[in-house]
Amino acid sequence: MQLFPLKLVTVVGEAVIMEDIAEEAVKLGASGYSLTEIHGHGSRSARNVIISSGSKTLKAEFVVPMDVAEKILTHVSHTYFEHYACIAWLSDVQVMRGEAYLVK
Amino acid sequence: MTPSSLAVMCDHVPAVLAAFDSAQISRILNSLGQNLLTPIPLCFLLGIICTRIHGGIKIPKELYLSIAIFLLMSIGFIGGHELAHEYQAHGVATIWKPALVTLLLGCVTPITSFVVLRYLGGFSIADAAGIAAHYGSTSAVTYAVANSFVEQTGHAANSYLPTLVTILECPGIAIALVIGAALSARERAEKAAASGRPVKESKLGEALYEVITGQSIMLMAGLLVIGFISTIFMPEKGLEPFLEFFKSKGMLFRGVLCIFLLEMGLVAGEKLGDLLKVGPFLVTFGILMPLIHGFLGVYLGHLAGLNLGGCTVFGAIVSSASYIAAPPAVRLTLPEANPTLSITAALAITFPFNIAFGIPIYFEMAKWVGAT
User: Fold this and answer.
1) Which domain does A44 fall in, by range?
2) Span B159-182, pLDDT tens digits
3) 3-class SS of residue B338
4) Which secondary structure element, helix H or strand E, spans residue A11, and what is its range?
5) pLDDT band, very low/low/confident/very high, at B1 (cuts 50, 70, 90)
6) Residue A86's domain is classified under what CATH number?
7) What is the CATH number of domain B59-368?
8) Which of the residues A57, A95, B156, B337 could staple to B130 if both were Cys, CB 3.0 to 4.6 A apart?
9) In the Cβ-directed half-sphere of B135, how many Cα atoms lie within 13 Å?
10) Could you tell me the pTM of the whole model?
11) Residue A83 at interface with chain B, using a CB cutoff of 8 Å
12) Which of residues 1-20 of A touch B (CB under 8 A)?
């Protein structure tokens, strides 16, 4: 079994901005993304508004190489952290079929 | 916000009250009683009580979203059907004036709201414009409740009111967001220059596109066109099952409206806790502004030829604030605006006020201006 060492970028934020973030991450080099509706509470979650799908908070996940992860995190922090309820983190992951994430 | 600005707003209350004599006040109280003791506002009240005492009512999100779709489709379809009858009987002669008044009020209400909030209330540009966007637009649920109220009183509104709801939905949001984006652009540029980062591009166009192509407009306007076309081209017999399913006087519409209001009560109950955070000016604004806009709607609606029920419903929709289409649009365009202010004002102050007190007051206002 071959595993590829890659990075998992996770962004949790207001539903109203998360689709934009996902699309912008693809432009920055991510090969795809997963969006999941989540529930919870945070220091700024009172700011979240409900979008037409009924979602309030979404989680976006991107499996990417380190250089793309840095670009996504920099972009998200510069563009969204000031005014939106949003948090991002980076994890190490071992991915099967990881070659698909390296080719861009 | 300053104490003097609050006093200026409150000074207008006696003048408005003085315009009504004791008989009129007693009629208003009677209408209030008739309205409050019906299932729709009582379900809303149950939702609020349940949330406040941490009760166990939970409406599944999918059911709530499905009901919203049904209500919008129903309002649109029946509106289109009635509009077709109106068109066949009178052409556009009876519709163009109310449509023009709707467009005018759609442009005026966000501006009056912005001016009051910015210059009397002392709110920031973004907050004032954000709240104004909510008050410039309308609430389809308030329309549905007001329409049920006038049908119960035996004064059905003019058939083309759903068309007016659709017209009213967009301009208010657009105007307030343009004002907010234009006035705060300089502040943003200065901030960007100080931080050395590039100026963030405005998402105004994207936000307005999402309002226009959002669920409310697409379903209501889409079904309005479908209802109109099918009424003109389909035989009456073939149309019957659809009318039976969608009709606003029907069992299904009234029943699901109760479930929807129960959910709205649950959400409004959560927001009641934010009333202390938003301050007395916004609470006063959330009650007085709808009364002023409602009166404008009733009066201009009467001048445009609406009947008693029509003036009442028109007053209700002009006075109401959007809490579905406006919040995401404001969040995208004016991210520095605090959504707690606008959503609390629209959902926890103006919506309950209109459901419980506003609609019967607009009904009496309509009688007062001479609507029949």
Assistant:
1) 4-94
2) 889 889 988 988 888 899 999 888
3) coil
4) strand A4-14
5) very low
6) 3.30.70.120
7) 1.20.1530
8) B337
9) 35
10) 0.83
11) yes
12) 14, 16-17
